[in-house]
Each structure stands twice: as C-alpha cells, then as structure tokens.
C-alpha cells in the first residue's frame, strides 16, 4: 500500500499534470485502467447518481464506503475517492469517517469546504478557513502522513464564472496556504477556468493544484502551462456515459 501512496503523490507534477478521468464504480474503474489511466479517482455526483441518490452526501455513508472498497479491489492502480465534506462537521467525527475510508484501501480523498446541510443538500455556504483547517488537521492526525488529502475550496463553484476576480483568487490562496499548514496534500479549485487567476493560485499555494475540466473549459495544454499538477473531470464522464445510454435506448425504443 505504501508504494501506491508514493506513486500517486509522485504523479502530481506542476506543469505536467496527472489526468484523472473520474469513475463511479468498479466497472468504470476497470475501463479507465484499460484506457491508460495512471490512477483512479471517483466523482461524488457520479457515484451518487449511479446509485439513485442526489449529490451532497445523500448517498448513505456505508454505501459510499462499500463502493470505494469494490472500486479499490477492481484495479491495480491507486484509487482516490471524492468524499465530499466527510459526512460530518465535527473534526473528530470527520476524521473517524475518513479513517473508515482509508480502511477500504483508498489512498486519498477529496475533502470540500462547502457546508453540507443535515438534510443532505449543499448550502452554498462555506466553513471558515479556520474551521476547515481544524477538520483537515484532525484527518491528518488520524490517517497519518501518506494519505493524499486533496483539500477542495468551493469559492469558485458558489460564485458565477463571470464574477471570478483577483479578490476571489486571493481568498482561495489564503485558504490554500491555511489548508497546507493544516496538513493537506493538494488543493482543488473546481469552477475556476480563468487561466490567469488559475496561474496565480498555482504559483502562490504550496500544494499541487487541481483543476476540474468541463465542457467549454480551456484545453489541457493551456491549463498545464499555468502550473497545475492535476486535471480531473468531475461528473462529466458519467454524464456523457448516461447521455450515450439514453440516446441508444431512445433509438431502440423508437
């Protein structure tokens, strides 16, 4: 297992980012591995939708852990799991849940700073940087030094793209530095597509920065040139797969 931790971390090279084409179950993980993936990462929205649930921790924790365990067991590659907000607010409770995730064989996870409401919906409100740093620190203390904790900030997801500006980038940088000090391994900025702002974040935050690709986003080469170290694809592979399935089903039924 230690070799998988090390190999996954080593894939994060600024300017030469690892590409993660996000999966949702053991079968899609095997397809990604067969297609040439260097590592596997799940997307929470994709996993939830595939199991008939909404995103934002509506998928029961035990089912999320079981899916992670099956995905890890299906491939030889390191597997990182999108674990949303950790299914808790209290730092110790979050850390205990991430410890359960690590026990599935996952070598890392995404961990977001958006508050998830008790009814299982995203609130579009974020934990303060201090609160989230405490949660990250508790996770790090519990799971040890090797687990790849990809700290996600939702600053750029909550705000429309045309409002993204230098002030938001500065706020993200402040969080990235705080999360690094708390023990994060990477910094994820989904929703940010402005290359100049992305470059400023990648240069200022002392962690490998993760960009999320989406339809209409800048191409991977341009993104790589900003200094990011990871490009993931979020829910979009699963959405494309469902669209292809629906189109084929409609053709069959017509």
UniProtKB/TrEMBL annotation:
Cited Gene3D superfamilies: Phosphoenolpyruvate-binding domains
Signal peptide limits: none
Species of the source: Sphingomonas kyeonggiensis
InterPro entries: ICL/PEPM (IPR039556), Pyrv/PenolPyrv_kinase-like_dom (IPR015813), Pyrv_kinase-like_dom_sf (IPR040442)
A GO molecular-function annotation: lyase activity
Name used for this protein in its record: 2-methylisocitrate lyase-like PEP mutase family enzyme
Keyword Zinc: no
SUPFAM superfamilies in UniProt: Phosphoenolpyruvate/pyruvate domain (SSF51621)
Pfam families: PEP_mutase
Keywords in alphabetical order: Lyase
